Amino acid sequence: MITCETFLSALDAYRAGTLDAARSVALETHAASCATCEARLEQATAGLLPRFAPAPPAALRAQVLGAVAARRTSQRRTIWARVGAAAAAAAFAAVLLRPAPKGAQVLVADSTRVPAAQLGAGGASAEDIARSEFRALDDAARELQAALTRAPGDAELTSFLRSIDDQRAALRRQVQDARS
Amino acid sequence: MSTSQTLPRPSPFAHVASQVIDPTVAAAQRGDETAFASLYDAHAAAIHALCLGMSGDRAAAAELVQDVFVRAWERLASFRGESAFGTWLHRLAVNVALESARRGQRRSLRVQIAADLRVVDGDAASVAPDGAAPGVEPGVAMDLEHAIARLSAGMRAVFVLHDVEGYQHAEIGEKLGIAEGTSKAHLFRARRLLREILS
After folding, report:
1. What is the pTM of this model?
2. Can you give the pLDDT of all 199 residues of chain B as single tens digits?
3. Cα separations in angstroms, A130 against A85, A164, B36
């Protein structure tokens, strides 16, 4: 360990780069724990290094903005897929909710997860499937609302959201018709 | 991954009236890619300097810059104007660069810094007799970019965070998991080695 006096006596040599490595380390270690000598070191070495300002490569702009555009497209595809799935689910539920022939038994499962070929194996009522489709529409609406928080006022997203509301209203009417 | 999983968390400052957001930032928040390109133009040089300094490699820096701006695009809605947009972007960039450094290092930056300082404590033999830094050919002048690339990842991180980004040692200590005094000692050594490499 060195003292502040030793530090001061070696500071000029440190600044000039003529102090050996071991003594340089000793000075740095002392300055790291002594506010006064830290300020002295800062003052003595200020401006000795050039400013670090490398120019970005010209091609980087197109690369970065291209990646951002691709990300946006990917987000839109996800939203489209959600909206499409919800719309298909709602249409499927509407078919199921049509009055069945007397005596016929409608056995269905969650249409958003089970292929049509497997329907009939699970055993859910038309009311169950309607509830499931309402949930699918709600999920899609949440996706759209989340996307709208990232892009407030986006006309396309707003239009999607409106179509979800329309589908929900249509499904509600189908349910009422089936019950009446 | 569903987009709902990437929803920004509500800001803890949501109850505070947000300051006026720069019109270009606001336009980018509405999905205007031209506005976002303007933000890139305004901040790319500084973000690139940060990424190049932290990585010490041009190709890695380009990837980091891309990652920073893609994440900025995804998280723009979470920017509420509590700080300048540049400050928000730089904080994001520092986190991206540090995450990348942690992934790329076999040892954590904290462990690496501790190891570097142990070398410093007894490194008279590892420094060339003419005072040049280890691995540097005497008499070969280098620019600062290449000189920084010669530093260890831990030393680069401390130097860039303090001297390029303007962080205080206490903040650097928190980010890297080291003591404030360790950060100072590392900075002094980094500057000295850079001066030696450049001379």
Report:
1. 0.65
2. 444 444 444 444 444 444 678 899 999 988 888 999 999 999 999 999 999 999 999 999 999 999 999 999 999 988 988 889 999 999 999 999 999 988 876 555 666 666 666 554 444 333 333 334 444 444 444 689 999 999 988 899 999 999 999 999 999 999 999 999 999 999 999 999 999 988 8
3. 14, 15, 42
Identify whether the C-beta of residue B29 lies closer than 8 Å to the C-beta of residue A154. Answer: no
Other residues' Cβ atoms within 10 Å of the Cβ of residue B146: 13
**Those residues with Cβ within 8 angstroms of residue B100's Cβ, 6 or more apart along the chain or in another chain:** B54, B55, B60, B64, B67
Q: Is B191 an interface residue toward A (CB < 8 Å)?
A: yes
ipTM of the complex: 0.72
First vs last C-alpha separation in chain A: 92
Tell me whether residues A143 and B2 touch, CB distance under 8 A: yes
| A77 reaches B (C-beta below 8 A) | no
Buried b (16+ CB within 10 A) or exposed e, B19-44: eeebebbbbbbebeeebbbebbeebb
Q: Which pair of tokens denotes residue A111?
A: 């249409």
Task: Give the nearest chain B residue to A1 (CA atoms).
Answer: B121
Question: How far does A73 lie from chain B, in Å, by closest CA?
Answer: 12
User: B48 CB near a chain A CB, below 8 Å?
Assistant: yes
Interface of A with B in 81-140 (CB under 8 A): none
Using CB atoms, pick whichever of A55, A61, A154 lies closest to residue B31: A154
- Given a contact cutoff of 8 angstroms between Cβ atoms, the answer to whether B175 and B110 are in contact is no
| Measured distance CA(A152)–CA(A15) in Å, rounded | 56
- Asked if A53 has any chain B CB less than 8 Å from its own CB, the reply is yes
Query: Which stretches in chain A have pLDDT values below 70?
Result: 75-126, 180
